[in-house]
Amino acid sequence: MAVLTKYILMYPLDEEHSLAINSLTSAMDIIDQETRSKIEDMQSGIKNIESNEDEELYQQLMSRGYLFENAQMEKDTINRYKLVHQELAKRKIITNFTICPTMGCNLRCTYCFESDDQHINYNLMTDTQLDTIFKYISETLENSKEERIRLKGDTPATINVFGGEPLLKTNYPVISRILKFAEANGILVKIITNATTIQPYLGLFERYVKLLHLQITVDGNKEIHDVRRIRADGSGSFDQICRNINRVLDLGIKVALRINVDKSNIKSLRELEAVIKSNQWDQNPLFYPYASPVLDFCGVGEDILTEHELLDTLLSERLYGNEEGFIKGIVSPSIGFLSFFFDSKNQMKPWKLDYCEATSGSNFGFSPDGNITTCLTYAGKGKHTIGTFDENGVRLNEEDTAKWFDRSVFRLEKCQDCKYAFLCGGGCAVAAIERNQDMDDVVCSDIASTIEKYVFHIKRTILNQ
Ligand code: SF4
Ligand code: SF4
């Protein structure tokens, strides 16, 4: 007997039309109200699914993968996807490596996920540790060279430099070695910095302009930024960061301006826009401002914005998603995926079978305590590691690595019957660990409401297309 797949999502576009998404096959169709009602009747069992009831609809639903001849055929399709996913995961090419020179930091941002113990831990990555990391990166890239070029063209690998604050003055020898190694091996370097201590590095950066990219955070105008991103002595950091952004842009280095958004600063983003305009950063092609929601893995912070709330506000206020919106991107797992999914330029619609780079196997983070983590939330904390490294080399623990890298919606029990599974990826592993003490006991992502908001805001575009 024919079965309607459970992976159907439907959203109103106007009074007469709805958007149907088949999240199993990634098909998207505009349907009229009559068709929507018939599908809903089939879903609730009011209407018989067999072809003799409505031959034309039956054939259309069959051809678009909404209908399967029997339940086994749907299961077989899912199993085929699972095999493809496993095969691709085996051939996964690592092109992202993160090095934390130290976990210590000179700021005490109010929403930071690092503990106070970490903030004052200024242990620096040693030369021997760096030698091991460089050897590991070189070997990994060399071993995957052919496959990498075949799958990714000549897209270079990236070393992310994170912390703590990677540009503390004492870290200079480490940063200098990383840049030298990266240049010699054709690797890009992205430094995630609070930009308060950049000045001693400007001479060094000048030599590596082509491979460098800085991510710098500014959370609002001076008044707002200075109560969120404070120094250890309680003073603000806004003026110095703005001066340093200008210095770095003047050198010709790309700057991604990260704006961490929650309820306490979302209303003031226009004021940040004014700061950007007054500095003429918006005129500079090297400058890319993007928003990201402040995360709270325990889910208790009252200022936290969900992804759909963030998306809704930024689009409603025209701060994002149109020519004049000053925010050019949103970095968060569900919104990032949906921007790609709904982009009409992307004819191949992707699935999101795992949630983020921590579970997709594409990031390795090395911290000065000699541990390797895949999610940087745990960098330098000595827990949820996937391996260790020292003068004798890198040792990955197979079981721990598999816990992270095999975490996909195919493994997660709660996701088996979820119609959003292939667009969600199974939610944040850290949220599951912190709230449920088990990375497989999922905390649902905000995908359901985020799709609703996304479609609501782009419904005109969808209808026009
Ligand atoms: S995490 Fe929740 S929303 Fe995401 S696929 Fe699993 S059950 Fe569905
Ligand atoms: S596991 Fe969660 S915290 Fe870690 S990178 Fe993924 S989404 Fe971010």
Structure description:
The chain has helices at residues 33-44, 55-63, 71-90, 116-119, 127-143, 145-152, 172-184, 202-206, 222-228, 238-251, 269-278, 307-316, 333-341, 357-360, 398-405, 421-424, 429-436, 447-464, and strands spanning 3-4, 8-12, 17-22, 27-32, 67-68, 96-99, 158-161, 188-193, 212-217, 254-261, 287-293, 329-330, 363-366, 371-373, 387-390, 393-396. It is α/β, with parallel strands linked by helices. It has 2 domains: 3-87, no CATH class; 93-399, TIM Barrel, CATH 3.20.20. Strands 12-11-10-9-8-7-6-13-14-15-16 form an 11-stranded mixed beta sheet. A hairpin with a 4-residue loop joins strand 13 (363-366) and strand 14. The mean pLDDT is 90. The structure holds iron/sulfur cluster (2 copies). One iron/sulfur cluster binds at residues 333, 355-356, 358, 375, 377, 428-430.
